[in-house]
Amino acid sequence: MRSFVMRMRNTLKKLGPCPATSRSLAIVTALLCGAASAIAAPKEAGLWIDDTGKGAVQIDVCGTKLCGRIVWLKDLVDKNGDPLTDKNNPDPGKQSRPICGLQILGGLQQLTEGGFDNGWVYDPKVGKAYSVAIELSSPTRLKVTGYAGVKFLGKSFIWTRASGELPSCDVTEAAVEKEVPAAPPAKAAKKPTAAKPDATNKAALAKPTTGKTGAAKPATAKPASAKKAAGEDLPWATSQKPSADKPAKPVAKSATPKPASPKPAVE
């Protein structure tokens, strides 16, 4: 508080003395100067991703102190598909509060040696609040120390500055619908349709087959054999057929007369 008064006094000195005839104007000027110094954003302000990587907190100036709210969540719903709420809060009236937009930092006061302390941090995972101090470890790393009573015995976590904008976790009906898969629409009852013949039946319809009770296939006329055409159908063919039982006799060959042997002369 003392540092704030000193900064306001130095600012008024730079602006020059206030006219004696307008005390109210001096008061307004002092208030304006004090407000200007109160809204100056420190380096600790900004968008920070927490140590779990599942949420991001926007740290802003709230009057003369710092506060922070959850503005991004990796998962918008729990395992049952319900929006995340402050269900672990010991106060039943606060258990239905959405986690998105929930203030988890507040009351952080700037220290003369640097950093902020004497604030509070709320952990929705366990539904408890602790004292908290924050300070920059580097331009992109924020050391957050939660403690109960003695800061030396507290536990520190490292938050990382977000490199760009993150989508808002503002839980609306549209956002929930995107995360929770919609139930498949009820299928309309199908109208009964005539049974279509399968491939086998189609083949049966296309090509009639001869069954036990079905009609016989029409015989396909086959051309007469060459032998029948040669022996019976030709005009010069005889009606007699060679008997299969008696083979034809071979034609006798003409005997060649043998020369008579000369008889000896009788003396």
Write the layout of secondary structure elements.
Layout: H1 2-15, H2 23-38, E1 46-49, E2 55-62, E3 65-73, E4 103-110, E5 116-123, E6 128-138, E7 141-147, E8 155-161, H3 173-179, H4 199-206, H5 226-233
Antiparallel strand pairs: 1-2, 1-8, 2-3, 3-4, 4-5, 5-6, 6-7, 7-8
Helix pairs in contact: 1-2
Structure description:
The protein is of the alpha+beta class and 267 residues long. Among the domains are: 2-38, no CATH class; 46-179, Lipocalin. The protein is 20% helix and 23% strand. The protein has 5 helices and 8 strands, in the order ααββββββββααα. Strands 1-2-3-4-5-6-7-8 form an 8-stranded antiparallel β-barrel. The longest helix is centred in the N-terminal third of the chain and has 16 residues, at 23-38. Residues 1-5, 18-37, 173-181, 209-215 and 224-239 have low confidence and may be disordered.
